[in-house]
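Here is the promised in-class demo. Please do not try to memorize the tokens; focus on the logic of going from shape to residues.
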């Protein structure tokens, strides 16, 4: 009888080890979305090294310049001033900017196609992502817009025109 109990104990222990190993392998397969920039505190340097090796940064292409146009606009600065600290104090991880659509989504890392470069600014929490602002840059007219979801229309906003060169 003692052998049966030892055998049962060893079998259960073996199953638990297998389950833990399987769960650990599943966690290693998770790859972050390469189309986002998240501004958040890094709690572990090894995580940062893994993310840098996985995420391929696009070359300084047109989409890079468009993102700089957005980030230097007064409206973007107004929305994001102190936002990272406020989100973290509220239990979040930070904020980010994501290219949702572009004229060349495959090369730009965008999620969909559009005649304009469409960005969303969001707050990142462990349980959700809260979109707080939408911007669009029209490469033909060289104008930057902010989308107002309440009025369901875009409003042209100013930016540094020197970045168009």
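The designed amino acids, position by position:
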């Amino acid at each position: 009888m003692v052998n049966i109990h030892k055998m049962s104990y060893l079998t259960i222990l073996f199953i638990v080890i297998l389950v833990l190993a399987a769960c650990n392998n599943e966690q290693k397969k998770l790859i972050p979305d390469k189309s986002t920039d998240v501004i958040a505190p890094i709690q572990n340097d090894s995580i940062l090294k893994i993310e840098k090796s996985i995420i391929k940064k696009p070359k300084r292409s047109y989409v890079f310049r468009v993102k700089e146009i957005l980030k230097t606009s007064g409206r973007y600065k107004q929305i994001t001033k102190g936002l990272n600290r406020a989100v973290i104090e509220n239990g979040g991880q930070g904020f980010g900017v994501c290219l949702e659509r572009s004229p060349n989504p495959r090369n730009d890392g965008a999620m969909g196609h559009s005649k304009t470069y469409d960005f969303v600014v969001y707050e990142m929490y462990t349980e959700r992502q809260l979109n707080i602002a939408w911007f669009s840059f029209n490469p033909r007219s060289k104008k930057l817009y902010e989308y107002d979801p309440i009025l369901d229309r875009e409003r042209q906003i100013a930016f540094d025109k020197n970045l168009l060169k």
